[in-house]
Structures are given as structure tokens and as C-alpha cells.
Amino acid sequence: MLQHLPLIFKNSLRNRRRSLLTIISIGASLSLLGLLLALYHAFYFAELAPEAALRLITRNRVSLANPLPYSYGAQIKQIPGVKEAMIFNWFGGTYKDNRDPKNQFARFVVEPEKLAIVNPEYKLPDAERAAFLAETTACIVGRKTANNHNMKIGDRIVIEGDYAPITLNLTLRGIFDNPSDNETMFIHYKYVNESLKSQPGMADFVGTYSIKLERAEDSNAVAKAIDDKFRNAPQQTKTETEQAFTLSFVGFLGNVKLILFSICAAVTFTILLVSGNTMAMAVRERVREVGVLKTLGYTNGLVLAMLVGEAVMISLIGGVIGLVIANGLIAALRTLPSTFVNMSTLTVPPWVTVSCLLIAVSIGLISSLIPAWSASRRSIVEALKFTD
Predict the structure, then answer these.
(1) Which of 363, 275, 273 is nearest to 19 (CA)?
(2) Are 372 and 384 in contact (CB under 8 A)?
(3) What residues does each domain of the chain span?
(4) What pLDDT digit, counting tens, does each position of 193-220 carry?
(5) Using alpha carbons only, how large is the chain's radius of gyration in Å?
């Protein structure tokens, strides 16, 4: 069979226009499939930072829109197994102009003195960390965001509040590095809270607490203890792992798993129909050629293998091209701001590459098997008499 590979490759491209269109169709479809599977992997199977397993997030049980009292922080810290509890509030706001996607990076309000304890993966030079701690109007930002906006240490940054009707006049005092988050800006809670005191009923409240545990294996017990502590309080809590909290945002989009798998199934089925029609036409045109091959001694099995091999060859070429396109699309996505997933680390994992190539081979096999089987079973006389 291996000696016939050059012939199979040559025959697969004999009708160049049709073969090219088929390859493009399969490549475009599998590029979309690869992209969706890569996003699925990033949402649900991305490797977490070691420190993430030691963190819990506590929020209001009703919704994120309902705040928690400031006093909860001290009470949470007293629970056995908790090393530190830090205010971790989404601020949002507008930087320059929200119509430009580059300006839409995350902005969080934290307690700076606790940030290095709860989130030690944010690497910051000691001098910059000291400057951030010493000045309530200071902020720090990830290197990717700093590079995108040409931010320098000492720059003045203005953030216009949205849900919080205040304007923050910040000074950039540090640029941090973090493999899993190089975009976020961190702001002093004290500065924001003092600014909100001019707005009735908006000060001294917390959106979420980020909790550092002593041991990762205690996460379930500590989460239950926190929620039990505030079970009868006016503002009850919901405590979950950092990963579960992040995935809850993905859940706002609906059943993401079902959506992704439905699109993948539809794409695969559609390209199977297109490929099946193409392969049936290609085999039908070559029935008389099959008769000639049989007169030369080619067996039914060898003819079948050659016809199916041509279809698999075309599908495999399309699959490889599709993966190249998918990698290009993902490279473009890595430059976009992160939303539900850290885009800067988005990639096509090995299992997605293997899956797409197997799907490409399967499309070639399934689409060509029936017409190839029918053609290979014809007798020499019947094949030579065939006209179309």
C-alpha cells in the first residue's frame, strides 16, 4: 500500500479546482472547530496557578450587585484555616474612551498591604511596592496594559467611575508581572472608600473578599464555615473557589458547554455533507478507471484503499491548513483584553490538535467509504461499460 502513496497523492489533486475548494471548506470548518475547542479548554481545563488553589472568593449570596458590610472581613479572618481576607472589589469605570477595546482592562480595588499575601504571584519590585503602599492615590498595573498604553512610572491616570459616581486621579507607582494576569490595575480601597463617602449609602461596603487559606485541602470546610457564620445575618454569603467564581461569569452567557458542542457538531456535520457530495462525484467520474485498474491486476481491496486514501489525503490537508488558521486566530486573540478567560495564555493544546486531525481523517473515511465500496465491487465489464 505504501508504494501507492505517490499515486494516491497525485490522484487526490487531479481535479485541482474541486480539490482546492474541498480543502478550503474543510480547512475553514476545522479552523473554527479548533478555535472553539481551544476556548473550551481555556474555560474549563486551563492549568491554574499553584496559589489559586489556596484562594476562596466570598460574595453576597443574592448576587454580586448586592454588597457585603466592611465588618465581615475581620470576622472571616478569625475562622480557622483562613490566613488572610482581602477586599477585592471590581471598580470598572472608564479609561479615556470605552469605545476602544484597548481601554477595557480590569480595574480592582484592593487593600495594598494584603495583596502580596493573598496574591503573591503579582511580582513587583520592592521600591515600587513600597511606593504603592505609601500613597493612597497610587495604583499599579500589569506590564501588558502598561505597554499597550505606553504607561510609565509616575504617570497620572484618570478613571471615571460608572456605577460609582466618582473620578479617580491616580499616579502609577508600579508595573507588575504575572504569567496568568498581566493586564489588571489595582487601586487603594481607602482612596475609593473615602471618595464614596460623599455619596449617601455607598461607603463602607465590599463587593467581594479574596481569602487566602492555610491549606488547599481545607477549602470546602472553610467555605462552609464562612457561609454558616453569616447564615442568619441580613447579608448572607456565598463562598467558592477562585476557579468556580471565575466560571460563574462564563455561566452568564448561558450553557457555554452546550453552545460550544452544538456549534462543533453542526460544523462537523455540515462539512461531512459537503465532503460526502464531493467524494461521491469524484468516485463516480472514475468508475471506468477502476475497471482499467482491475484489468491490470488490482484487487477490490486495493482499489477501495486507494479511493478512500485519496479522500483521507484531501481531508488531512484541509485539517492541517485549518489548524494553521486556528493558531493564527488564537495568536490574534492573545492581543485582545482578557474577559472571562486570560487571553494572553490562550493556545491550541495538543489534544485539540489531535482531535481536529482525527476528525479530518474521519470525514475523509466516512464521506468516501460508501461510493468507494460501490465502485470497487463492480465487475471489470460493468465498470468499463459505465458511462456518466
Answers:
(1) 275
(2) no
(3) 2-46+254-385, 62-235
(4) 999 887 777 788 899 999 999 998 999 9
(5) 30
